[in-house]
Inverse folding.
């Protein structure tokens, strides 16, 4: 489906090409429907009506060659096994969701390993004397949303498996496990209770859906799938059995994407991008083994019933006094040496949903590069340990996110609030007590090594990495991490974990359909599970940012990491004043207004006129008339005063203030108030003070990532007025740093 978005004043017109003969127009604006209709008629009345035909598409034979394995060369260091089957077009069967039933059992789209699916148990004995290590790190399965996967010719069902190094050597064994599980699904009749669970989840997700962007909602209107995406209306056991019949080896395509290729292999080159691949025949005996496995491993079984499906959808704001209901910002309900808790009851969206976010400072987690990489290993192993419970909850639309920021473990549990405390208790109990096993340590260590090797393969992310490497006082280089990681053992991690968990500091936000008593109960869950000493503020990592000297004009030049990457990137960073006190919002208002004025012409010059050209001039629009300036200013004020479109959006806004340690929950309103007094000359003066190169207060850093077909040395000849940072360590040692706000 092609989408073209046109802007015409306040009218937004979306053009959807649904197929070769059908074009759907959608108009989005605040005006009445009659007005919108008249505008659309005026703009498109001259388009001639086409012939009323409905083309039929057919294909003879299979879409791809059977009995083949294709190995595709990857740029990144990854191992991915994709198994693909075709099904008949199911456009008219969307009420049955039979393909989604199978996807739920075979794996879950965009989820990690499902404990009820076969890959949670791919650590088994495959021969008399060989104990197999873990073969897969994640799995997703299902029919994609793209048109190619849901065409009128066929539906395409893909199972994508991320492999470990050992898994790459066991591809055929893994496929054998898949077909053992498929045989189990054929032997066990389709389960109506599983369909009922999916039906209940779909109904509640639709009934209590959060508001989405207008463009997306309008697109769904055009496709008549507002409810269809959620609807599990018709239980059809025979349809499920019918679709299982397409999961046969002769209907399967096998693709292995990996950087590991034998140099002696005979490569083919695909015609569009010149990517290398090989094509191998699969033996008839192996195809027959997959078609009818002689046995089914005892570890393969259907998932258990889901304990996280909510049943209580009552709205707390309907039963609470007006004093709490009318509070517009989070309030601190607990402030103790171990824990600080912020709370806000939702009375705007009135959905049975809640967002609970927490950051937990871990003792010594970022003190040095070794501690940093040990902490990262611990967090990755924790996520691996949590896979089973997180997956079950996510099916019930109760999500969990676990990540790391310097010495802080960030945990987010969000979704339908009924079973949220139950999930949080289980997650925290595991985080407090678990110790990794040797086999999982090896698998996760290998995965972290691969992730670090793949860091900065894209020039845009590489430039941001290099900027932060200059600006942050504590920044551990990816190559330094890799060097330390290679020498780490499970014994190192086991010795480190007790110390890491021995002292903590927790700051959290509970926002949504939770009473204050429920929020306090959540804080008590933390205190009962983590009965440890609080981590004092001086022992928590505090990031400091470099204070560039007056008139600084710095350049950092680096070549692309991927030696075949032709694109280059320049990232220009201007350092303004440190935000302090009452001037904070006025300074931010000036920056945001300047960005508002500059964004459209800058984009137009860069993308439209220059076509991503090499030189783009950036200057203040001093010729901007007063009326245009006022339009920009009033437009920015309107954006700042817009109501949050969803509970999640509001939670994230609050959380950003908490993690930044500003706690200015009404910052947008204050910034809009400051904008009232800002004049055009204020913006021009700000620009001349901080951005014009000859100003002593202009401090800038240019990070330049050069493509493989460029010459860095040649470019440095043209940077005579700039100081090129050759020795980053020496540069940072000689620099001053701002005091941390966090």
């Amino acid at each position: 489906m092609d989408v073209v978005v046109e802007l015409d004043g306040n009218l937004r017109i979306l053009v959807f090409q649904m197929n070769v003969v059908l074009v759907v127009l959608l108009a989005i604006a605040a005006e009445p429907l009659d007005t919108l209709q008249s505008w659309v008629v005026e703009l498109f009345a001259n388009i001639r009506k086409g012939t009323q035909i409905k083309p039929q598409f057919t294909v003879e034979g299979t879409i791809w060659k059977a009995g083949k394995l294709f190995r595709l060369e990857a740029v990144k260091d990854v191992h991915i096994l994709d198994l693909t089957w075709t099904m008949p077009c199911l456009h008219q069967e969307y009420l049955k969701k039979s393909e989604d039933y199978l996807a739920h059992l075979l794996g879950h789209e965009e989820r990690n390993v499902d404990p009820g699916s076969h890959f949670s148990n791919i650590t088994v004995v495959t021969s008399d004397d060989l104990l197999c290590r873990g073969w897969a790190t994640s799995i997703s399965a299902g029919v994609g949303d793209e048109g190619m996967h849901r065409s009128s010719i066929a539906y395409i069902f893909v199972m994508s498996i991320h492999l470990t190094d050992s898994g790459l050597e066991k591809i055929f064994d893994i496929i054998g496990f898949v077909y053992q599980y498929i045989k189990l699904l054929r032997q066990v009749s389709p389960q109506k209770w599983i369909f009922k669970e999916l039906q209940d989840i779909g109904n509640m997700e639709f009934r209590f859906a959060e508001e989405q962007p207008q463009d997306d909602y309008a697109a769904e209107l055009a496709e008549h799938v507002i409810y269809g995406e959620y609807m599990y209306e018709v239980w059809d056991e025979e349809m499920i059995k019918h679709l299982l019949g397409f999961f046969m080896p002769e209907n399967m395509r096998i693709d292995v994407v990996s950087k590991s290729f034998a140099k002696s292999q005979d490569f083919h080159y695909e015609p569009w991008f010149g990517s290398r691949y090989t094509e191998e025949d699969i033996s008839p005996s192996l195809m027959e083994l997959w078609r009818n496995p002689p046995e089914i491993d005892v570890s393969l079984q259907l998932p258990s019933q889901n304990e996280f499906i909510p049943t209580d959808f009552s709205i707390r704001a309907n039963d609470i006094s007006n004093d709490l209901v009318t509070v517009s910002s989070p309030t601190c309900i607990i402030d103790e040496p171990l824990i600080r808790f912020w709370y806000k009851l939702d009375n705007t969206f009135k959905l049975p949903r809640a967002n609970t976010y927490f950051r937990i400072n871990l003792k010594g987690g970022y003190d040095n590069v070794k501690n940093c990489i040990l902490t990262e290993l611990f967090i990755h192993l924790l996520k691996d340990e949590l896979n089973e419970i997180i997956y079950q909850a996510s099916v019930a639309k109760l999500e969990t996110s676990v990540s790391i920021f310097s010495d802080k473990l960030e945990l987010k549990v969000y979704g339908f609030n009924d079973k949220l405390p139950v999930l949080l208790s289980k997650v925290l109990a595991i985080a407090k007590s678990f110790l990794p096993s040797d086999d999982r340590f090896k698998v996760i260590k290998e995965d972290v090594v691969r992730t670090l090797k793949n860091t900065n393969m894209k020039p845009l992310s590489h430039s941001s990495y290099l900027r932060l490497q200059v600006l942050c006082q504590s920044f551990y280089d990816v190559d330094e991490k890799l060097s330390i990681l290679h020498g780490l053992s499970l014994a190192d991690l086991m010795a480190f974990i007790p110390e890491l968990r021995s002292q903590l500091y927790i700051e959290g936000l509970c926002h949504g359909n939770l009473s204050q008593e429920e929020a306090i109960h959540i804080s008590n869950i933390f205190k009962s599970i983590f009965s440890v000493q609080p981590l004092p503020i001086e022992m928590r990592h505090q990031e400091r940012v470099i204070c560039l000297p007056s008139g600084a004009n710095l350049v950092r030049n680096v070549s692309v990491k991927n030696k075949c990457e032709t694109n280059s990137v320049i990232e220009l960073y201007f350092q303004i004043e440190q935000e302090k006190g009452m001037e904070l919002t006025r300074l931010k208002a000036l920056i945001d207004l300047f960005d508002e004025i500059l964004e459209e012409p800058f984009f137009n010059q860069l993308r439209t006129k220059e076509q991503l050209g090499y030189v783009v001039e950036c200057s203040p629009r001093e010729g901007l008339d007063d009326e245009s300036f006022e339009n920009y200013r009033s437009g920015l004020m309107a954006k700042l005063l817009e109501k949050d479109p969803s509970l999640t959006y509001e939670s994230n806004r609050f959380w950003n203030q908490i993690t930044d340690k500003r706690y200015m929950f009404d910052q947008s309103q204050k910034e809009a108030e400051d904008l009232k007094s800002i004049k055009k000359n204020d913006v021009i003066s700000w620009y001349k003070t901080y951005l014009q190169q000859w100003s002593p207060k202009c401090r800038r850093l240019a990070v330049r990532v050069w493509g493989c077909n460029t010459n860095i040395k040649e470019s440095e000849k043209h940077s005579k007025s700039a100081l090129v940072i050759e020795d980053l360590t020496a540069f940072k040692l000689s620099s001053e740093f701002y005091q941390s706000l966090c």
